[in-house]
Amino acid sequence: MNKHLAALYVVAACILGCKEQPVSNSKEKGATPPPTTDTMMTVADTIEPTQVASWRAFEQFEGRYAAETGMLEKEPLKSRIKALLATECPAFAERFDVTPPVGVENDILYNQGCRKHYCGGDEAALAIDMPRDVIYIGIAVNGTVKMFSERNDSAFPEKLLRWKLKFPSLN
């Protein structure tokens, strides 16, 4: 009989212990209502692996001319330049008429160019920080430089900053 009574107590304790707690009234003192929306903030990742991986294909252009390779017409570069520059796109393309070979140094792809017969005042430069997946562009129109970067990144590559120093009007 004691065994049955002990078993009854255990079963009763389990049933009572497993009871759902009553829902508290949000009007109670100190209670905060549950949020109506998800309070977790989404953060866009700055690295998209497919895009970063695609820059590796651009390393093959090192030592070759941009016009010969069609580099500026290849994705993802073409669409991202268009998105970055918008109305300045024609000015940039015009200034990549005459270019030296493309260079890659410390994972930064770099090239610069100028308009035929107007080198020195009408130039453009392009730098791609491949590991960070950020494109930087400088455009000089009559010696006045405008700098562009994706995500408003202000960490311009050193080579692009040195290019900008050629134009004393804005330094």
Would you write up a description of this structure?
The protein is of the alpha+beta class. Helix content is 29%, strand content 18%. The chain has helices at residues 2-17, 49-56, 66-69, 77-85, 89-94, 158-164, and strands spanning 103-105, 108-114, 123-129, 134-141, 144-149. A five-stranded antiparallel β-sheet has the order 1-2-3-4-5, with helices on both faces. Residues 47-53 have low confidence and may be disordered.
Radius of gyration: 31 Å
Question: Unreliable stretches, pLDDT < 50, 5 or more residues?
Answer: 47-53
Distance between the termini: 97 Å
- What number is the mean pLDDT? 80
Give the helix level as a range of percent. Answer: 25-40%
**Class computed from helices, strands and strand pairing:** alpha+beta
Q: What is the β-strand count?
A: 5
Sheet-strand content, in percent, reads: 15-25%
The helix count comes to 6
